[in-house]
Amino acid sequence: MKNPLYGQQCNPARLEWIRRDNPYHKAWGDPRYPFIATTYRVTEHHTAGGMSRWLPWLNELQPEMFVEVSPELAGLRGLENGGWATVSTIRGEIEARVLVTERLHPLVVQGQVLHQVGIPYHWSYVGRSTGDAANELTAFVADPNVSIEESKAFSVQVVAGRRASRRRAAAVGPLAEPEPGQEQGGEPSRDLPQVQAKKPAPHGERSGRQQQTEEA
Amino acid sequence: MEPHGFFTDTSVCIGCKACEVACKQWNQLPADGAYFSGRSYDNTLHLESTTWRHVAFLEHSRQLSGQTTARPFSWLFLSDVCKHCNRAGCLEACPTGALVRTEFASVYLQPDVCNGCGYCVVACPFGVINRREDDGRAWKCTLCYDRQKVGLEPACAKTCPTDSIFFGPVEELKVRAQARLLELHRKGVHEARLYGMTELDQPGTEGLNAFFLLLDRPEAYNLPPEPRVPTKEAGRAWGMMGLAALGMVAAAIAAVRAGGEE
Ligand code: SF4
């Protein structure tokens, strides 16, 4: 969905890392990823759960990775409350328990229905309670000043059931084919950033610290 | 010692579950196991022999006054706990005297006396007290008797960041609760009500030492609207039994006399 207020669609100052193992979605109207998602934390766990998922007292309060969807989206995708869903982006896919709740409901923007998916942050592969990590999904886009990753708004695909394997773009390349026409100079998928990530050091150049230790 | 208790004001509870964890930590209770319930953020679901504070999360498609939502909807939190009833079913049912009334008016279970018969479990109108499968004995909230003894407030009240759980002398709590209720009504939260504060509110338990301010009907919180301690019915039950016995005697006499006349 295009921003109706500005011609420029994406933050021109953002940092991006454009390489084959770091693919991006189209910034608007990507039919492969029709739902919008956000990430957040719940009170029961701390940051990515690396510390709190070792505590049975906290694990019993939030025992498993879950995603929250509205009853409408659950109906659309055949998701069952307490069952499994697989959420994917072009970077990775995760499985999670489904929590159907009326707290989320579809937005209507420019006459179009937009379904939302809520994804808590707290799971990963170590601890007494383990689960897939939300960071497998989020795009590598960062702010230009302190390189904080933008992880609060992105688009996803949701299907019912568990994932077959934990596929990652970093290991197998983009998880979805590019949109037809998008590659051959068709409609642009995103405004290009004007600032890019810092260029990797040319081969052979040593960092300042290395040099210092060698001199010493 | 004057009666001490809890006033749990659900209107300021933020559902952080700090009380549930603080309770488990102070009393060294084990976790109940990890079970994803799919019922809002509530994964422990009810009070248990090892869960003495339980934060319930309730989602209803019902608009409450004083709240603005896109659709008719309410998300309610309730930090539930043993009510320490003035007329306590568990205490009256206990044959060993393990359950006693303390000097703070709370109902305290002495684990070294409890023999695990389970009579108290069925006598509680709220389903608070329960037996532990691993040791067989009944366990429930002690209102932190050990902490009260040394002048500390119970762990849950101490930890609650919003003072949703307020601990103190019951008479002071009542004044506080009335004032809060008035304030909420003035702000247009018309469904707000107190649950079990006095004997008049709740004759079945003769009032609770741990009472609540609710934002909807008790049923919306899975609380019984009119709880009754079973022993309250004892007088009537014995009366009925007496009546039945009299009837049997009368029938027997009538039968004998009728037989004798033949
Ligand atoms: S600690 Fe207080 S605010 Fe947090 S869940 Fe318990 S009662 Fe509610």
Automatic annotation (TrEMBL), chain B:
List all membrane-crossing ranges: 237-256
Is the keyword Metal-binding assigned to this protein? yes
How is the cofactor bound, as the UniProt entry phrases it? Binds 4 [4Fe-4S] clusters per subunit.
| Positions that bind [4Fe-4S] cluster 4 | C94, C114, C117, C120
Q: Give cofactor(s), names only.
A: [4Fe-4S] cluster
List the Gene Ontology MF annotations in alphabetical order: 4 iron, 4 sulfur cluster binding; metal ion binding
Q: Which GO terms describe its biological process?
A: cellular respiration; formate oxidation
One of the record's GO cellular component terms: cell envelope
Q: Which residues form the signal peptide?
A: none
Q: Where does it localize?
A: Cell envelope
Instruction: Name the keywords, alphabetized.
Output: 4Fe-4S, Iron, Iron-sulfur, Membrane, Metal-binding, Repeat, Transmembrane, Transmembrane helix
Q: Which residues bind [4Fe-4S] cluster 2?
A: C23, C141, C144, C156
Which PROSITE patterns does the record match to this protein? 4FE4S_FER_1, 4FE4S_FER_2
Q: Give the source species.
A: Geomonas silvestris
InterPro entries xrefs: 4Fe4S_Fe-S-bd (IPR017896), 4Fe4S_Fe_S_CS (IPR017900), FDH_Electron_Transfer_Unit (IPR051555), Formate_DH_Fe-S_su (IPR014603)
* A Pfam family assignment: Fer4_4
Q: Describe the location of the 4Fe-4S ferredoxin-type domain by residue ranges.
A: 4-34, 73-104, 105-134
Q: What is this protein called?
A: 4Fe-4S ferredoxin
Where does it mainly reside?
A: other
